[in-house]
Specification:
Elements: H1 2-25, H2 29-33, H3 40-59, H4 64-90
Helix pairs in contact: 1-3, 1-4, 3-4
Keywords: Membrane, Transmembrane, Transmembrane helix
């Protein structure tokens, strides 16, 4: 059971980072991975990917890869937090 937490953490990490990479390249993966949502629901969905990756990384079994999973998932959480902050407060109409 605990080994599946590592796998789930890797899956959510890949989903989160692939959204970020495709967002900056303008590919169609961005639309596919976010289920073609826009606005606030996109921000919540993207943030949930990073929260799930962090949660499953903390629940994974103790191994040398656990620290890497936790570090990458916290990095993803920070990046999505910055993107959410810019999206919510940076693009408001004056």
């Amino acid at each position: 059971m605990k080994k599946s937490f590592s796998l789930l953490s890797i899956i959510f990490l890949l989903l989160g980072f692939s959204i970020i990479i495709s967002m900056f390249q303008g590919n169609t993966w961005f639309r596919t991975l976010t289920f073609q949502t826009t606005g606030m629901s996109y921000i919540v969905l993207h943030f949930m990917y990073s929260v799930f990756a962090t949660l499953f990384a903390f629940l994974s079994p103790k191994s040398p890869y656990k620290a890497i999973l936790i570090g990458l998932s916290i990095l993803l959480l920070l990046i999505t937090g910055v993107i959410a902050f810019i999206g919510i407060f940076g693009f408001q109409s004056p």
